[in-house]
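QA checklist item 7 of 12: single-chain prediction sanity check.
[x] sequence parsed
[x] length recorded as 164
[x] structure emitted
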Amino acid sequence: MDDVAFLGSALSIAREGLRAGQVPVGAAMVREGRLLEAAHNTVWRDLDPTGHAEMNVIRLSARAVQGIFLRGCTAYCTLEPCPMCMSAFLWTQVDRIVYGASITDAVKVGFPELWVPSAELAMRARRNVRIEQCVECRDECLALFQEWRAAGSPRHTAGKRETS
């Protein structure tokens, strides 16, 4: 399989999350050309701010390989990892990260993100990880946010602080 196909696995699970009322982000972990795990965002379901798709796929993949290091793995993400998720990827020592929509793309459609590019975090951490955008999948990944907004998700805050 190639990057487009593996990112397709992340897209597929992101759609499952969208149907379940979650933020429409998906991630897949691949090692030696084999899909290890895939996960979507579960922040709202679990009431866990760390329940990002990338964090969930890291947890599942670490269990699958019976270890905390994911050397030799490529992470496929529908959205460029936020600083929290990117830091976790750096700790796991994944070899490569491939994403569809960028953080800048998400912000442009009104989705609140921390504007720190993954490549900048990797450089500052002095970690040698390849980070690439799969431009062939960008529009399809970005469309997930538009679908979510069109559905009128009550959890979409468009950068506004939620109050209780």
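[x] summary fact logged: Strands lie at 26-31, 34-40, 73-79, 96-101, 130-133.
[ ] second reviewer sign-off
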